[in-house]
Amino acid sequence: MVDPGDGPDDSGVLIVTGGSRGIGAACARIGAQAGYKVLVNYARNRDAALAVVADIERSGATAVAVKADVSRLSEVERLFAETDARLGRVTALINNAGIGGEVRPIEEHTEATLNQLFLTNVFSCIHCSSAAIRRMSPRYGGSGGVIVNISSAAARLGGIQGMVAYAASKGAVDSFTVGLAKEVGKEGIRVVGIRPGVTATDILQPIGGADLIRQVSPTIPLGRVGQADEIARAAIWLLSPAASYIHGTTIDVSGGR
After folding, report:
1. Count of domains in the chain?
2. Is position 5 within any domain?
């Protein structure tokens, strides 16, 4: 795999949704190393987003943080308009924003919990991709680009007990990746996905955190959970010319699980 850090000095403009922590923060930092000007999107944790921006700026790269709830179309439109004004036309998008949702049997979910889960995990991908296409596609004066959707191995495995709805939301992301790739491929826009396996980030805290890691690690062929940087390096590689013929598919980055 080509080191993302070997990229050109100006790879373009990268938007990372949910970029203040975990996999998103790692994507923002490594994307900056690859030469992108980076928009770090966050929903609530301003301090964490600004810390990611500060890390990037210390390396000599350019980054800004913008608060926006990407599950809402109006917020997405504002996010992309602000990116246009502050960094320029987006050329790369990583749809990373997501939540684990409530851990409960499917019959105990409510309309409210399901709405929150699917709006955040699925609608955000659709809204952000739509906004990106209006900037990437030659139909709108663009010159192409790449969209990476962060899914989950749960989409294949069905999720752990109490997270069936989460797995279903990530299955929808996988379907969206395939369909969107067919729709926009001839416009110079590549669409790909990544299914992380169990990864040591804050999203594990509500479902067991360190205890879950100890339980799951022996079931993974590599014998350990993943790290955020390992997922991010794969995502940034997919943005690069080295992955120029990878389109309409979702790659497992899961230690073999």
Report:
1. 1
2. no
153 within domain boundaries: yes
The one catalytic residue in 36, 42, 166, 245 is 166
Which CATH number do you get for residue 206? 3.40.50.720
Active-site residue, 166 included: yes
75-126: per-residue pLDDT in tens? 999 999 999 999 999 999 999 999 988 888 999 999 999 999 999 999 999 9
> Beta strand pairing status for 250-253 and 63-67?
unpaired
Nearest-CA neighbor of 148 among 186, 174, 168, 171?
A: 174
**Whether this model's pTM surpasses 0.85:** yes
Q: Is 120 exposed, middle or buried (0-12, 13-18, 19+ CB in 10 A)?
A: buried
Identify whether 173 is part of a domain: yes
pLDDT tens string 162-214: 889 999 999 999 999 999 999 999 999 999 999 998 877 776 566 666 776 66
**Residue 256 included in any domain:** no
Q: State which residues form the domain around 150.
A: 10-250
Helix residue spans in the chain (DSSP H): 22-33, 46-58, 73-86, 111-118, 124-136, 154-157, 164-184, 210-216, 228-239
